[in-house]
Amino acid sequence: MDKSTFYEDVLQVVAQIPPGKITTYGAIARYLGSGKSSRMVGYALHTCIGFPDKIPAHRVVNRNGLLTGKNNFADGEMENLLQKEGLEIENNQVKNFKTHFWDPNIDLVL
DNA sequence: TACTTGACAAAAG
DNA sequence: CCTTTTGCCAAGT
After folding, report:
1. Which nucleotide's C1' atom has the smallest distance to the CA of A24?
2. Which residue, A43, A61, A62, A70, shows the most beta carbons closer than 10 Å to its own?
3. Helix, strand, coil content of chain A in percent (nearest 5)
4. What pTM was estimated for this model as a whole?
5. Closest nt by CA–C1' to A68
């Protein structure tokens, strides 16, 4: 689709995140060619809330592996989903975050 | 219609 | 090592 804006692309990428994996806002932003638009990534997900069936935003965390947006999800849903996918969460942070990290730049080809 | 806020990141001090 | 500043753009007030 032409006219795809940054946040539209973000949703597309997030929707392609494989289960059991997580990525960061910066990785997505970089994949789209704007490493400084990381804020828009989170904002895109914020607007995308309401249809999580297409946008597994729980698989997107900040650079520290911290569940920054967990407050925006249902209470404890984010951690629950991540744990369900085989990830380990502690103190609102993904353990072995680097191990389960998925970079769109690697799996996808721009 | 204009200003402020916001799921972040990376660089500089 | 930790704190502060800048970039980005859309949506809410």
Report:
1. B8
2. A61
3. 45, 10, 45
4. 0.91
5. B7
